[in-house]
Design brief:
The protein is α+β, with helices and mostly antiparallel strands. About 35% of the residues lie in helices and about 20% in strands. The two termini are about 35 Å apart.
């Protein structure tokens, strides 16, 4: 598939450009530090943003494959009727149908736990998974499916409306605060699951997915990714001190720190 191969090349270019930006910025969307100022702490380990299915396979030669892929939600709606216990899995298929082919974002942040880390992130970890939804009813259907699935599992306590986003629910866990549900992001509704807290708002931590300039014109990327292991350096150093008596572990940690 020619367009699929071209998109893969574009994705690689976007990753490279985003990786270069990561070395120049403290975190996504952050302005450069003023001259003479201390560099901002780097906390984002991984960030990834994917365009929706409607942004890929746009070559006319791939029209048949595109149509087939866009039929998946209809097929998911039919599956519960084809299994003896399909009714029990109906909510799962509903959730998959609502999230399929949506624009998606994921970010993982880490900062060493200290007095400034709130109860939301007792281990210094922040994770966000976010989907761009067609409208509020679509986001509400995803939330209803998730809540129905959670009712099938024992919960230590009932989730409560989120203080940060009233349209979402939240639950305190040993690993940190978990928040999930629909969230209004300007003119768009998103469905999100978040563990812990993020340094920055859920929208500001992602750079805009803007066209990439090249020698043959502008390219609209369908994926932008960034990786940075620098936030893990203090953790690796701490583990290195603990494992100093084991040369094999110490060497492995030293290699990871050098990377």
């Amino acid at each position: 598939l020619r367009s699929a191969m071209m998109m893969a090349m574009v994705a690689g270019g976007a990753v490279a450009l985003s990786g270069g930006a990561a070395m120049a910025q403290g975190k996504a969307g952050e302005a450069p530090a003023a001259k003479g100022a201390a560099p901002a702490a780097r906390e984002t380990i991984v960030s990834l943003e994917l365009a929706g299915m409607d942004q890929i396979l746009i070559d006319p030669k791939d029209a048949a494959l595109r149509r087939a892929l866009m039929m998946v939600p209809s097929r998911l709606a039919e599956l519960p009727d084809e299994f003896p216990d399909g009714e029990e899995a109906k909510d799962l298929f509903t959730l998959l149908r609502e999230l399929y082919a949506r624009p998606a974002r994921i970010i993982v942040q880490y900062r060493m736990p200290d007095q400034k880390v709130s109860a939301e992130s007792p281990f210094g970890v922040g994770v966000l998974l976010s989907f761009g939804m067609a409208d509020k009813p679509s986001a509400d259907r995803a939330q209803a499916a998730v809540n129905a699935l959670l009712e099938q599992a024992p919960m230590p306590e009932d989730p409560q409306p989120s203080k940060a986003a009233p349209s979402m629910l939240e639950l305190e866990t040993p690993g940190g605060l978990v928040r999930w549900g629909p969230r209004s992001s300007g003119s768009q509704w998103r469905y999100e699951v978040q563990l812990g807290s993020l340094n920055g708002t859920a929208d500001a931590v992602f750079p805009a997915m803007t066209p990439v300039k090249s020698s043959f014109g502008e390219i609209q990327p369908y994926m932008v990714a960034r990786g940075d292991l620098a936030p893990l350096t203090p953790l690796i150093g701490m583990l290195g001190g603990i494992a100093a008596g084991d040369p094999t572990v110490a060497n492995a940690l030293r290699s990871a720190q050098d990377a």
